[in-house]
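Recap from last week: sequence in, structure out.
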Amino acid sequence: MKIEFTIPYPPDKRGRAAWSKRFSLNAIYAGKHWSKRLEDKEFWHWLVRSELQKQKVPCKRFERPVRITFRHNDGLDCDNHAYIEKMIVDSLIGPVLIQDDRRYYTERVSKYHDGDGIRVTVEEIC
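Predicted structure tokens:
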């Protein structure tokens, strides 16, 4: 079983720059306040679920371990996507993932692509 969906970036250059600054792992290292992290979590939860619904992604939970591949095109260094990827995974718990522990989520892959948005692929590992 495999699902794919895309999380769009803000449409303009200024919006993308603000997005990258807000959600980069560097924001956490800079001491982002817990209330802002909570806002981020709520935003990503809404965004991911909204995109799953909008893109008519079948929300059937994976019963076996999965690999989640993230493809980015936002100008951030590869390691700065960790915060974004964590919030996406946490948002998938329930509709797609039973849990994000090692029984169900065993591999994460981060890549770049030339497309628009964050391309997320969840696939069972046999």
